[in-house]
Amino acid sequence: MNRKYKLLYIEDLDPQTCMNLLKEGNMFEVETIDAAKTDETLDKIRDHSFDVFLMDFELTSHTGRVDAPTYASTLRTKFKDHKDSPIILISSDCNIGRFKQDFSNNDLFDIVVTKEEFLNRNQTYKLRMYDLVEAYSKIKESCFDISSILGVNDENVLDFRFVHYLKMYGANKDVYGMCRFVQKTYLQSIGPLIGEDVIAARLGIDKDCDDFKELLKLLESYRYKGILSTSYKRWWSEEVLEWWNREFDGEFLRLMPARQRVQLLNSKYNLHLHTANPLDFNRSTCYWSICSELKKPIDPNEGYVILNDKIYPWQEHEYYSLKSITSNEKLLQKISVADRKKIIEYGQNFKEEQE
């Protein structure tokens, strides 16, 4: 990391556990303040320069007067020097549910995570916070130039509708909005950019095999290098597909069984890649996506589309496998009524056959 960033941690309980973890790795210069002292907290924010803010959701459990959304809203709207700073929210499982039900809070925070997950995966989240500070700086320094922000030579290679949204954020000088839109609709979904799980699925590979990392080295030139690319390792899906077509004389990847894909790769590059096995209840190995719950390869024809109120044209549908749904019945509520009926009928028939 090139430099340390200043982080303010706002908490109304003992902050020491989080403080110790945040200080590890030399990424942040950390200060904390008791959220119960509302005026003092706001004065500290106003009078000092901070790069990133971390705050607990419920700050009124003792003597505090306001919770995290109030502080975040004040930062975003009242403090000119801090409105373009990343804000991360952590809280207990039950409070995260309360937060997500309040739609007025959704445009305040860059990351919302349970405190338990934050502590368990602190290295991941520290890197992501650091990346957010760098991303905000890049957006401002580039004067909202889309090509520079996304690490491409020409914005015309991007979906024109995606570019349209980014230009709206740029016209409004909305650093947070632009960064959040890239993060939510480009980096956290399957579409023009894909992660390691999807690359492995599309090439038919069990990503836990030793030589998978060697294969990724062959694809290094197709890595995404725009904002947030340190904490989100992504590849341009179209460029990976073009690479396949060049290397294997246009062999149609989408309809090829996984075993054949892996055989071609092993033969050409002298690798020892392993073929990914289908999940329980699935038969096809013409993988193209992953089970969103289990992160394992799946043929979309054997998956169940996850309902999404807002899916953009450049995003692909995401799926649950039958295995994931049978292991967690709550997932049934996230798929269509027709698919729920199919699964229930399948379960009943299976039960009768076993009897």
Overview of the molecule:
The protein is an alpha/beta fold and 355 residues long. It contains 15 helices and eleven strands. The protein has helices at residues 16-23, 38-47, 68-77, 93-101, 115-120, 122-141, 146-150, 160-171, 175-187, 196-202, 212-218, 237-247, 258-269, 322-327, 337-354; strands at 5-11, 28-34, 52-56, 87-91, 111-114, 193-194, 235-236, 289-290, 297-298, 304-305, 319-320. Strands 2-1-3-4-5 form a five-stranded parallel beta sheet, sandwiched between helices. A two-stranded antiparallel sheet has the order 6-7. Strands 8-9 form a two-stranded antiparallel sheet. Helix 3 links the parallel strand 3 and strand 4. The N and C termini lie far apart (61 Å).
Radius of gyration in whole Å, from Cα? 23 Å
Largest sheet: 5 strands, parallel
User: End-to-end span in angstroms?
Assistant: 61 Å
Helix-strand pattern, N to C? EHEHEHEHEHHHHHEHHEHHEEEEHH
Q: How much helix, percentage-wise, in residues?
A: 40-55%
- Strand residue content: 5-15%
Number of helices: 15
In total, the number of strands is: 11
Going across the biggest sheet, name each strand in turn: 2-1-3-4-5
Q: Regions with pLDDT < 50 over 5+ consecutive residues? A: none
Shape: globular
Structural class: alpha/beta
What is the fold's blueprint, element by element?
Blueprint: E1 5-11, H1 16-23, E2 28-34, H2 38-47, E3 52-56, H3 68-77, E4 87-91, H4 93-101, E5 111-114, H5 115-120, H6 122-141, H7 146-150, H8 160-171, H9 175-187, E6 193-194, H10 196-202, H11 212-218, E7 235-236, H12 237-247, H13 258-269, E8 289-290, E9 297-298, E10 304-305, E11 319-320, H14 322-327, H15 337-354
Parallel strand pairs: 1-2, 1-3, 3-4, 4-5
Antiparallel strand pairs: 6-7, 8-9, 10-11
Helix pairs in contact: 6-9, 8-9
